[in-house]
Specification:
The protein is mainly α and 67 residues long. The protein has helices at 8-11, 18-40, 46-61. Helix 2 (18-40) runs antiparallel to helix 3. Residues 10-21 have a biased composition (Low complexity).
């Protein structure tokens, strides 16, 4: 009994609801920001400013439409 494949459509991401896509992007962005926050605690000065700028831009890059 081999597991059934959803076919080529699932491998292309076709058929998953847009809510699933947005949810996974939000989860990625949340974890990314959380990880950057942990790294930010270990940096200082100029590096910290760059890290904060990256965190501010990340939701746009992840396609969340947050401005």
């Amino acid at each position: 009994d081999e597991p059934r494949s959803s076919g080529p459509r699932s491998s292309l991401g076709i058929g998953s609801g847009s809510d699933d896509v947005v949810g996974s992007r939000r989860e990625f962005a949340r974890r990314f920001v959380e990880g950057i926050g942990k790294l930010d605690g270990n940096t200082s000065g100029d590096c910290r400013k760059k890290t904060i700028g990256l965190v501010v831009r990340m939701p746009k890059v992840a396609g969340l439409g947050v401005s």
